[in-house]
Specification:
Largest sheet: 8 strands, parallel
Shape: globular
Structural class: alpha/beta
CATH topology: TIM Barrel
Number of helices: 10
Number of strands: 8
Helix content: 40-55%
Strand content: 15-25%
CATH superfamily: Aldolase class I
Distance between the termini: 25 Å
Length: 226
Amino acid sequence: MYTKRQVAQTIDHAVLKPDQTELDLHANAKMCIENEVFSMCVKPCDIKLAKELLKDSNVKVSCVLSFPHGTDSIPVKEFQARQAINDGTDEIDMVMNISKFLSGDYEYVIADIKAVVDVAHQHGVLVKVIQESGFLTPEQIAKACELSYEGGADFVKTSTGFGPGKATPENIEIMIKTVGDRMLVKPSGGIRTWKDAVAFLEQGADRLGVGSTEAVLSGSKAEGDY
């Protein structure tokens, strides 16, 4: 039986929609503080403001990197990681280069992840690798997890919330079975009810990516599609 606070402490609350403004950031930061979520996950351009808004709380700042397709070049991703850390992020959710992965260029995928990890770990910043599992077969999900481990990442994560599909129990089972003893696991995308959130935690997930945090924590029905 999970308490509201226990679930909140696993949530990275997403403020990532392209039309969300600074006013939205202020409102979401207030909500995150009131509900004691683990972190607020923001766009790179919003890290500094998020850090300022959350400075007197225990809520961390996390950010996305190369979002939502993961197709920036490796030097650009490396620079993005450095800039995000300079701006104050506590954790980085990077998108794996999905195209290179589906092309079978696994050496590139590992190098891509490692470039970000090497920068982040120098500063004690954790890295989550979003594989956008809606594009992948079960075998590919397992392979992407292995490559994320080889690249030195801390978490594997299902989805951006802007691609096909959503986090599913089946995908989380694959992730946990493949790397759950070596990495942390974060379902993200489509977690819109208290029941969904608790089910993933009971399954063994370590963190949750949620856009409808208030609805999830209050047990009401989430509006919208994220």
